[in-house]
Design goal:
The protein is of the alpha+beta class. The chain has helices at residues 22-33, 119-131, 138-145, 154-165, 170-178, 193-202, 220-231, 251-259, 267-282, 287-297, 311-327, 345-348, 350-362; strands at 2-3, 11-15, 41-44, 49-51, 65-66, 78-83, 89-94, 104-109, 183-184, 235-238, 241-244, 303-304, 307-308, 331-332, 340-341. It comes from Mycolicibacterium poriferae.
């Protein structure tokens, strides 16, 4: 991937899953360059243009197709990736062939321009101002740029790309393995005691009463996990027996399906990503502290009953999501007084990871 009309030149070579969908490819290209996914984008080929769904818009332009159902193979071996139609960043992308089986960044050079600097022309002007201490705008622009103009770091980029591809949460793989041969549910439709106790042995803090759990309701995160895996069709009930679907054998598909449970541009997903990002950037926080910080950065566009969303609304929404956040290893609440980052927090929700990196870099 090469950024057009930019000097010094900016390029990246990355290994990505051959089965990547275009929304997934978009996230991978963003991570590889160092963009913050703050603007619209398009994939342009000689035969078709693919774009993202715009919240609140139901009509697609005549010359654009929905990227959601498309995959990397639809783009051919060369295509353009357009990002931020105002600044007009145009990337020329080539598919070089089969790479390493592990996704990541192979090579690259050049710093990613700061967002909203005016496109290639504005970036050239910005670099000139930064290079001239006597320019009247020098101090102002240096303050505006801050630490966003960083040299290319292959190791850091490799890590970002791999996190975007994602990993199956250990709790998910554990439950899928326990159900691999199929289990008969209780008359109430819940998991049998053998599965509950096995999960409890691996997640003791899910039931901190000092005795073995007996029923699924004893482990609220397990109940939430059971429900979500059935909703995203990683588990299927057939003739009273619950077993993994074929998709559960493919780690990429497992991650993709779990991520689909977090619907984009909804209040629940927005606060979830920001909560995980805050914990990653700042460390453990009490639920009240976390809600306050999320409320401060979520913006003023969210309302309930015609009234602006409050910090208490955020606190309530996070409490309602806490069972599945724990079940997916996104948060760790072993100490009931605080929420801490869970082992899957950096590798399940790309939006949360991107926010964490931005806030950590800015010291926000």
């Amino acid at each position: 991937m090469e950024l057009r009309e930019v000097e010094p030149a900016v390029a990246r070579v990355i290994d990505v899953p051959a089965t990547a969908t275009l929304p997934e490819l978009h996230e991978l290209l963003q991570a590889a360059l160092g963009w913050t996914d703050s603007h619209l984008h398009q994939f342009v080929t000689p035969k078709a243009t693919y774009g993202m769904a715009i919240p609140g818009e139901d009509i697609w332009p005549d010359d654009e197709q929905d990227e959601t159902g498309a995959v990397l193979a639809h783009l051919g071996t060369e295509f353009d990736y357009l990002y931020d139609f105002g600044d007009g960043w145009n990337h020329h992308v080539q598919v070089l062939g089969r790479g390493d089986p592990t996704p990541g960044c192979v090579d690259g050079h050049g710093a990613c321009p700061p967002e909203d600097c005016g496109g290639p022309h504005g970036y050239t002007e910005l670099l000139g101002i930064l290079a001239d201490p006597n320019h009247p705008e020098h101090d102002h622009m240096r303050s505006w740029v801050g630490n966003r103009l960083q040299p290319f770091d292959r190791a850091a980029t490799d890590l970002r790309v791999r996190r975007v591809v994602g990993e199956v949460p250990h709790s998910v793989r554990l439950l899928l393995d326990l159900l691999a041969d199929g289990v008969k549910l209780t008359p109430g439709g819940r998991l049998p005691r053998t599965v509950v106790r096995e999960m409890h042995e691996h997640r003791l803090h899910w039931y901190p009463l000092g005795r073995p759990a007996s029923i699924e309701d004893d482990l609220p995160p397990l109940g939430a996990l059971h429900d979500v895996l059935r909703d995203v069709r990683l588990l299927r009930l057939r003739h009273g027996v619950l077993a993994p679907t074929r998709a559960a054998a493919d780690d990429l598909d497992v991650v993709r399906r779990i991520r689909s449970a977090f619907e984009p541009n909804t209040f629940a997903t927005e606060i979830t990503e920001r909560a995980i990002g805050m914990l990653a950037a700042h460390g453990p926080l009490t639920p009240d502290e976390l809600a306050q910080r999320v409320h401060e950065v979520i913006g003023h566009g969210w309302q309930r009953g015609g009234q602006p969303i409050t910090a208490q609304d955020v606190r309530t929404a996070l409490a309602q999501k806490s069972r599945i956040l724990v079940g997916l290893d996104l948060i760790d609440n072993a100490d009931w007084r605080v929420w801490a980052l869970g082992p899957s927090a950096r590798s399940l929700l790309p939006g949360a990871t991107m926010l964490a990196d931005i806030w950590a870099a800015d010291g926000a």
